[in-house]
Amino acid sequence: MLANCEMATCEVVLILPVLQSAGAERIVHGKVIATETYWLGGRIVTDAKVLVEKTMKGDAEKIVVVRRLGGVVDGIGQKTWGSASLDLGEEVFLFLEHRNQSGVLHPVGMAQGKFSVMKTAGGEKRVVRLNLPVVDAHLGQAGHHD
Fold first, then answer.
1. 64, HSE (Cβ side, Cα atoms, 13 Å)
2. Highest-confidence range of 3-12, 68-77, 120-129, by mean pLDDT?
3. Domain range 24-134, CATH architecture
């Protein structure tokens, strides 16, 4: 990976994420077209429907459902540190795996398996990782790596 840092912001550009691709059942590039947040077994989860533009590994489906832990339901919120955010309308590059028999996919390594697709000032698309949650081992406090 390469880092391109200017002033107070930093983008990490994907070259070849060997660890994610090795553990991923599917690798897809697409756009989040819908999200649904609800209670499941005593915790809040958010499912994102991703319209797949291209499949690089695994079964080629037009739409995949990707689950992450956390979200807000009826004013009650739950946050899971390290969970990938998938925002409506966001273009993403995902490394995905099944964790159970539900058929729902999850990003490999939580937020590590999700990259955003951004456009440069010149209009070129770049695959980047933004705001990856990290834990400060010295202080034991969670935060974001910006």
1. 29
2. 68-77
3. Beta Barrel (2.40)
